[in-house]
TrEMBL record, chain A:
<dbReference type="Pfam" id="PF01547">
    <property type="entry name" value="SBP_bac_1"/>
</dbReference>
<protein>
    <submittedName>
        <fullName>Extracellular solute-binding protein</fullName>
    </submittedName>
</protein>
<dbReference type="InterPro" id="IPR050490">
    <property type="entry name" value="Bact_solute-bd_prot1"/>
</dbReference>
<feature type="region of interest" description="Disordered">
    <location>
        <begin position="29"/>
        <end position="51"/>
    </location>
</feature>
<dbReference type="InterPro" id="IPR006059">
    <property type="entry name" value="SBP"/>
</dbReference>
TrEMBL record, chain B:
<feature type="transmembrane region" description="Helical">
    <location>
        <begin position="169"/>
        <end position="192"/>
    </location>
</feature>
<dbReference type="InterPro" id="IPR000515">
    <property type="entry name" value="MetI-like"/>
</dbReference>
<protein>
    <submittedName>
        <fullName>Sugar ABC transporter permease</fullName>
    </submittedName>
</protein>
<feature type="transmembrane region" description="Helical">
    <location>
        <begin position="216"/>
        <end position="236"/>
    </location>
</feature>
<keyword id="KW-1003">Cell membrane</keyword>
<feature type="transmembrane region" description="Helical">
    <location>
        <begin position="119"/>
        <end position="141"/>
    </location>
</feature>
<keyword id="KW-0472">Membrane</keyword>
Automatic annotation (TrEMBL), chain C:
<protein>
    <submittedName>
        <fullName>Carbohydrate ABC transporter permease</fullName>
    </submittedName>
</protein>
<feature type="transmembrane region" description="Helical">
    <location>
        <begin position="163"/>
        <end position="185"/>
    </location>
</feature>
<feature type="transmembrane region" description="Helical">
    <location>
        <begin position="266"/>
        <end position="287"/>
    </location>
</feature>
<keyword id="KW-0472">Membrane</keyword>
<keyword id="KW-0813">Transport</keyword>
<feature type="transmembrane region" description="Helical">
    <location>
        <begin position="99"/>
        <end position="118"/>
    </location>
</feature>
<dbReference type="Pfam" id="PF00528">
    <property type="entry name" value="BPD_transp_1"/>
</dbReference>
């Protein structure tokens, strides 16, 4: 064959060349192996050098530099300790951690966010009890009583297993976020207080909005649901009776109202998909007037529309009067855990202490503007910011502590695993099904109740008193719940 | 025209033995890699599918066919299965032939700027899916979205179309987006296939007075057929494994209207909301999915099966 | 038709005028084909519009990207996004890794698939049916969830925390399509070509290396492109196989740094996506020619 210097030869040669170059520069990276030496740096850090690995999510995006700077502060304060940071994508942090544990190369401290995740990890014995951390000084960093094992959300099996970051007293607050300018334009000077006011206002605004402005977006319908019946975190169970009760009259009324508004085109179309375009950007664009939202939407909308007349209010209540408040079933959401397999538990505990320090909480708040678990670290500053003050006000008004059967009903773990392990039992999906597909909500809800009842009957085989465990007779949905006895 | 196969002399036998030996030597890397990284994991997942297992530690709770029975009884499984099937129908009925048409057009040396056209049609393939999800959500929005504004202005519709939010429209919309996103791949494969047709054949056909259509039917298609079968399979397989796009654009919503098997499996295997992921169940769904698609392919396309048999024999 | 040795292979220059016979008809074709531009130009513009918007978004402010509609020309140009993308997406650290990973996976794919494809194109190879059957059947198994067994295997081989393990895990499951493409291609190459080479005294290996592999360029170009794109954007495999070595991550993983638990840095992501698409576009333009030049003149009438 004739030697021709065509593109093909060039391709092959350059690929080979490229391979060669890359292979020589990065050659040893190819093989790897089990040698757990994350980085070469830091080894020259004095004789008694201890290396800790911290596996985190650089959240919010761009937080890498913040965390590195904070770790530098920690290293400064604790000579001899080096912290290697491993960052994982938010979606994959838990998977990555699980594999690291299976590999026997678990990080010393890791971000393990949320109750389901903490339960999963603690159950496998991967998290170390942090009881040594709990001193009077430590307790004083957080709201009074919030570290009680039964309600902190950070405990497992009676031991502190996690420290919090961006979640606290205000955490589960459901806000009614509204654009006061739009409301005023259509003749309303206050946000709706009741459901029928909400319906009336939404209709009026959509009708006059002429396809450009709509009255309502049901973004966090789930938050409205939680707050309208005595359910706690899992709305499938009525905690006053311990029985499944999604087909509750008030709840049916709520969902049916949204179904009505949807089928008549009152609700802004396009909300149905939790896709890439979030509610706050349509809100900031002035395309709709009001919506039930989670707290973090406030700052996001504000960033997009700095001059907007954004106001916050409590979520409207049923016309027949309030039946429940937004449920605070745990004081905190777990975030940081320490590995039970850490080779340097004492140093790792120091790091945990640092991550739960007032300084760190304040630094995080100042950097990202989000509330952190130690309210005293930032409350004065937040009071000066109208948006943030608004969140605190609404949460003080509408949040009430409820019993958390997931934390309290010991022995019912399998039942929870069965309930949370079935995505088809998620109440919000059933409600959205009714609203979007225009079908009756009650039969759907009754179907869910029936399946939960079946799971209960199954669970009774192992835990005969499970219904008692899930019943909190002293629970008054209109008051803060404290454990009697 | 063909050289008559040599007689079965001892030297023929020796040559043949050597060819077989060399053939298997050539196959060794594939067999090793494929067995280790594809077959073994698949077989392992069959094994896992008989357990109630969260994916950590050794699987212990044997549930037999329980996972399979549960999946087969779940309407959500069939919903996702059907949606996946719609995706492949779209890919096979629209993308596959359409890409061939474009490949034929863009293959013509007479068409100026064909390199640019090819690049243009290919670009969606390399566009980051997550960003595309946002772009399309903004473009297709019923309120303020450019597509609806255009349709309204032109008077084609009198109410904005809720492309992604209406459960009846979301799936076709998403299939359309999937075709758009993957079109370039099929196009490139078709172009490569057409390139394997020796140019002399066209010349010969032209000398015989064949027109463009006759050349296509008599020269191009017969020669590309073996590769066309591969492209068909590839398009089919890719459309069944649509995951990222669905996650990015609709997340399977509204209310599971665009849920596909890969998102369904992901939800059970890796959902962070679960205290105990159901890896075993996810494996069972994967196995069922694989089996069904295999059966359906073999049943519904006897022509394809025949092709495969012929090219495999 | 008679066979000529491939050494007489002549590449037709794609820009040269079409073959002499029927010159009149060819120029008629040329005129007729011009009409296609009327369709192709607007069609392709609409087709790439979302892509162009992605590029333009990387020069926009967050506000303009989310609320500013769909115009392509940014009102206020900003380059902050690229600066952020560089640090958040870790382009400086990860680009080298990504090349190592992608090229390793590519070499594995091309070598393994072309060898196997050539072997399997011999219809009389014993065991061929089984291998082909298994390959095709495996195509239908969704593999999103088979990561756990693969992970265990790589651990057992001691290849965790290295890009080779990742490249193997990336390349191996994707081998089916390239193998089948090569089978399809080599199966279509006239037997006589191989015979001719053998008459010249070439053995099995030589025939493959000097005759068959060069002929397969259109297929190889495609396989190279697809394999490269796959590993360039790969996310899960390089993440899972570099758990303990964040310094070995690739850009596909880095891109996910733009996503937080609740919020996303959309403009940074757009800038990151715009940067990371460049090598692929270059490769595409570079390989473009292999899609145009076929095995011209391999068989003469």
């Amino acid at each position: 064959m004739n030697k021709k210097h065509g593109a093909g030869d060039l391709t092959r040669r350059s690929v080979l060349l490229g391979t060669g170059v890359v292979a020589t520069t990065a050659g040893c990276n190819l093989i790897g192996g089990s040698d757990p030496e994350p980085t070469s740096s830091g080894s020259g850090n004095g004789g008694s050098g201890v290396e800790l690995t911290l596996a985190l999510v650089p959240d919010p995006p761009g937080a890498s530099e913040f965390y590195r700077a904070q770790m530098d502060l920690f290293e400064e304060a604790n000579p001899g300790i080096t912290v290697n940071v491993i960052e994982n994508p938010a979606d994959q942090q838990l998977n990555a951690l699980e594999l690291m544990f299976q590999q026997g190369e678990a990080p010393d401290v890791f971000r393990c966010q949320g109750t389901p995740a903490l339960t999963r990890f603690a159950e496998r014995g991967w998290t170390a009890p942090l009881d040594d951390l709990v001193t009077d000084e430590f307790t004083s960093r957080f709201a009074e009583g919030s570290l009680a094992p039964a309600s902190s959300g950070l405990h497992y099996d009676g031991h502190l297993m996690s420290v919090p970051l961006v979640w606290g007293d205000w955490g589960p607050t459901a806000l009614w976020m509204y654009n006061a300018d739009i409301l005023a334009e259509y003749g309303f000077d206050a946000p709706p207080a009741t459901w029928s006011e909400m319906e009336e206002m939404a209709r009026a605004i959509t009708e006059e909005g002429n396809g450009q402005v709509f009255g309502l977006h049901p973004d966090r319908l789930d938050l409205m649901m939680y707050g309208s019946a005595p359910y706690g975190t899992l709305p499938n169970l009525d905690l006053t009776t311990g029985s499944p009760h999604l087909a509750d009259d008030t709840l049916v009324e709520l969902v049916e109202m949204f179904r009505r508004l949807q089928s008549e085109g009152v609700i802004i179309p396009g909300w149905e998909v939790e896709g890439a375009s979030p509610a706050f950007s349509d809100f900031a664009a002035g395309r709709f007037a009001m919506y039930p939202s989670a707290t973090w939407h406030v700052a996001e909308a504000r960033k997009l529309a700095p001059d907007m007349n954004l106001k916050l209010a409590p979520i409207p209540v049923p016309d027949s009067g309030r039946r429940a408040y937004s449920p605070r079933s745990a004081a905190f959401q777990p975030i940081w855990s320490m590995s039970s397999e850490s080779a340097h538990p004492e140093e790792a505990l120091l790091l945990m202490d640092f991550l739960a320090s007032i300084d760190f909480y304040r630094a995080y708040y100042e950097e990202f503007g989000s509330f952190t678990a130690s309210q005293i670290a930032w409350e004065d500053q937040a009071r000066e910011n109208p948006d943030q003050a608004g969140i605190l006000d609404v949460s003080a008004e509408t949040l009430r502590t409820v019993p958390n059967p997931q934390l309290l009903a010991e022995g019912a773990e399998d039942f929870w695993a069965a309930i949370t392990g079935d995505p088809e039992l998620r109440a919000i999906d059933v409600a959205k099904d009714a609203v979007i597909n225009d079908v009756d909500f009650r039969p759907l809800a009754e179907g869910i109740d029936q399946r939960v009842e079946e799971l209960l009957v199954e669970a009774e085989a192992d835990v005969p008193n499970i219904r008692d465990l899930l019943t909190f007779e002293d629970y008054d949905p209109l008051a803060d719940w404290t454990r009697s006895q | 025209m063909t050289a008559v196969p040599a007689q079965r002399t001892p030297s023929w036998r020796r040559r043949r033995r050597r060819a077989v030996l060399w053939g298997w030597l050539f196959l060794t890397p594939l067999v090793v890699l494929f067995t280790a990284f594809s077959l073994w994991p698949i077989v392992a997942s069959w094994w896992y599918s008989f357990f109630a297992w969260d994916g950590v530690g050794p699987p212990e709770v044997w549930v037999g066919l329980g996972n399979f029975a549960e999946a087969l009884q779940a309407s959500s499984f069939w919903n996702a299965f059907w949606n996946s099937f719609v995706f492949s129908l779209g890919a096979l009925l629209v993308e596959f032939p359409l890409a061939l048409c474009f490949a034929l057009l863009l293959n013509s040396v007479l068409l100026r700027g064909r390199n640019l056209y090819r690049l243009a049609l290919f670009l969606p393939v390399v566009a980051t899916t997550a960003v595309i999800g946002l772009v399309l959500a903004i473009m297709l929005a019923p309120v303020g979205g450019v597509v609806n504004e255009a349709l309204l202005t032109l008077g084609i519709v009198d109410r904005p179309i809720n492309f992604l939010g209406d459960p009846d429209i979301a799936l076709p919309t998403l299939v359309g987006i999937d075709i758009w996103k993957g079109f370039g791949i099929t196009l490139i494969y078709w172009l490569a296939a057409i390139q394997t047709v020796p140019k002399d054949l066209y010349e010969a056909a032209r000398l015989d007075g064949a027109g463009a259509r006759q050349q296509l039917v008599n020269v191009t298609l017969p020669v590309v057929m073996p590769i066309a079968v591969v492209i068909f399979l590839l398009t089919f397989q890719r459309s069944l494994n649509t995951f990222e796009l669905v996650q990015a654009v609709t997340g399977g919503g509204p209310v599971f209207a665009t849920d596909v098997l890969p998102t369904y499996i992901y939800r059970y295997a890796f959902d962070a909301e679960m205290a105990a992921p159901r890896y075993g169940f996810a494996c069972a769904v994967g196995v069922l999915f694989g089996l069904f698609t295999l059966i359906i392919t073999l049943m519904q396309s006897p022509a394809l099966a025949g092709r495969l048999r012929r090219s495999a024999s | 038709m008679t066979i000529v040795s491939p050494s007489t292979t002549v590449r037709t220059d794609p820009t040269a005028p079409p073959p002499r016979p029927n010159r009149g008809r060819a120029s008629g074709d040329r005129r007729r084909i011009r009409w296609w531009h009327l369709f192709l130009l607007p069609f392709c513009f609409l087709w790439v519009y979302p892509f162009l918007w992605m590029i333009s978004a990387s020069f926009k402010s967050r506000q303009e990207m989310l609320l500013g509609g769909l115009h392509l020309w940014p009102q206020d140009w900003t380059f902050d996004n690229f600066q952020r993308a560089w640090t958040i997406g870790r382009f400086g650290e990860y680009t080298g890794n990504t090349f190592t990973f992608a090229i390793t996976a590519l070499v594995i794919t091309v070598v393994t698939a072309s060898l196997a494809g050539y072997a399997l194109s011999a219809k009389d190879l014993p065991g061929r049916k089984i291998v082909m059957g298994v390959l095709v059947a495996a195509m239908f198994i969704p593999h999103g969830y088979t990561i756990i067994p693969v992970f265990e295997l790589v651990n057992a081989l001691g290849l965790q925390n290295g890009l080779l393990g990742a490249a193997l895990a990336q390349a191996a499951p994707g081998l089916v399509v390239p193998v089948l493409l090569y089978v399809g291609f080599f199966g279509g190459v006239p037997k006589e070509l191989g015979e001719a080479a053998r008459v010249d005294g070439a053995g099995y290996l030589r025939t493959f290396v000097s005759v068959m592999a060069p002929l397969a360029k259109p297929v190889t170009g495609t396989v190279v492109l697809m394999s490269f794109i796959g590993s360039w954007n790969a996310f899960f495999v390089p993440l899972v196989f570099t758990l303990g070595r964040p310094d070995l991550r690739t850009l596909g993983v880095g891109m996910y740094n733009f996503f937080g638990t609740d919020t996303t840095d959309w403009t940074g992501l757009a800038a990151g996506a715009s940067i990371s698409v460049i090598p692929i576009v270059i490769l595409f333009l570079f390989l473009q020619r292999t899609f145009v030049e076929g095995i011209a003149g391999a068989v003469k009438s």
